[in-house]
């Protein structure tokens, strides 16, 4: 919080009392960096996020290093995170693309995984080198094996609102793939606005259509990018619908290496500021989180794009980005 005690808490009717933030900065954020962040810095970043009160922190990806070289150190990083359990009940999900990735994750003791699909054929071809249905077939044994081992499974669905090659994506098309992912056995579905083109009415329409298709609101998370400055308004629309899981990235890091028009994720600090003002609990210490993003920005050599981080951080002349 700022020294002035802001934002003032003014609850709005019809909103959840508590939100779980699914922090993606260490994975979705860092995978889009041009340079490689040292493993020790990644581990310390995740530790600091946990200390700030985040309880779901996506740690890394077990995608082949050829495709995401920034996360090639998954085997080295994950064992460094065992002490995070000491700061609270923290879940460390990891992304897996296929059975080989699942093998790697399980060998290191991962208890929460995510698979990532696409609502559009073009992105599926570019990102997964498969059709949409072929990718679902690839996920089927991954989800089945994970569930048999009592591992939590999240299904990411990209391009839910628009695709840079195909344009607007019909709601019915998204619902078909989303329902198929859930039918595989996923515990949770994350709706990705990969290129940030969603608007609140579109969000409400998709959530309603998913409910009508049998996907319950409590199983849905939302993942907005802020390309057109709509991430917070879209999040509010999702909260008004009853969604209680929101993806965000500390400092607003990230994008998508396979969709060049995708800019940064919704900044966790910006999300927390809005939720604090609405009186919605997150369990996150905004000052601690902001300090963490400033610390990481120092390692990345550039200021955080988060407006809240910038607003709460002293000017460079009086601030130190050193550890």
From TrEMBL:
Record's keyword annotation contains Metal-binding: yes
Family matches, as Pfam families: HMGL-like
Signal peptide: none
Family matches, as InterPro entries: Aldolase_TIM, HMGL, PYR_CT
4Fe-4S listed as a keyword: no
PROSITE patterns documented for this protein: PYR_CT
Keywords, comma-separated and alphabetical: Lyase, Metal-binding
Residue span(s) of domain Pyruvate carboxyltransferase: 19-290
Region (Disordered): 304-323
A GO MF label: lyase activity
Homology family: Belongs to the HMG-CoA lyase family.
Protein name: Hydroxymethylglutaryl-CoA lyase
């Amino acid at each position: 919080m700022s020294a002035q005690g802001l934002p003032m808490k003014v609850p709005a009717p019809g909103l959840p009392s508590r939100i779980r933030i699914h922090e993606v900065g260490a994975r979705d954020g860092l995978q889009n960096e041009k340079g490689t962040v040292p493993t020790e810095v990644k581990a310390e970043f995740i530790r600091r996020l946990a200390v700030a009160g985040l309880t779901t922190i996506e740690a890394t990806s077990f995608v082949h290093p050829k495709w995401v070289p920034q996360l090639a150190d998954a085997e080295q990083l994950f064992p460094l995170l065992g002490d995070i359990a000491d700061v609270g009940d923290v879940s460390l999900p990891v992304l897996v693309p296929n059975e080989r990735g699942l093998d790697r994750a399980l060998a290191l003791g991962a208890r929460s995984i995510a698979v990532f699909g696409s609502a559009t054929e073009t992105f599926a071809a570019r990102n997964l080198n498969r059709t949409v249905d072929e990718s679902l077939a690839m996920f089927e044994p991954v989800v089945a094996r994970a569930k048999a081992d009592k591992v939590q499974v999240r299904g990411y669905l990209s391009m839910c609102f628009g695709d840079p090659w195909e344009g607007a994506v019909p709601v019915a098309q998204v619902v078909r793939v989303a329902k198929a992912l859930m039918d595989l056995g996923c515990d949770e579905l994350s709706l990705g606005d990969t290129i940030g083109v969603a608007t609140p009415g579109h969000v409400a329409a998709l959530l309603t259509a998913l409910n009508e298709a049998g996907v319950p609101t409590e199983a849905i998370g939302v993942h907005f990018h802020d390309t057109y400055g709509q991430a917070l308004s879209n999040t509010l629309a999702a909260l008004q619908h009853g969604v209680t899981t929101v993806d965000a990235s500390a400092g607003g890091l990230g994008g998508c290496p396979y969709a060049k028009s995708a800019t940064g994720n919704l900044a966790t600090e910006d999300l927390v500021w809005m939720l604090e003002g609405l009186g919605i609990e997150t369990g996150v210490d905004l000052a601690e989180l902001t300090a963490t993003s400033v610390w990481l920005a120092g390692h990345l050599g550039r200021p955080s794009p988060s407006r809240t981080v910038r607003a709460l951080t002293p000017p460079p002349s009086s601030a130190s980005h050193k550890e």
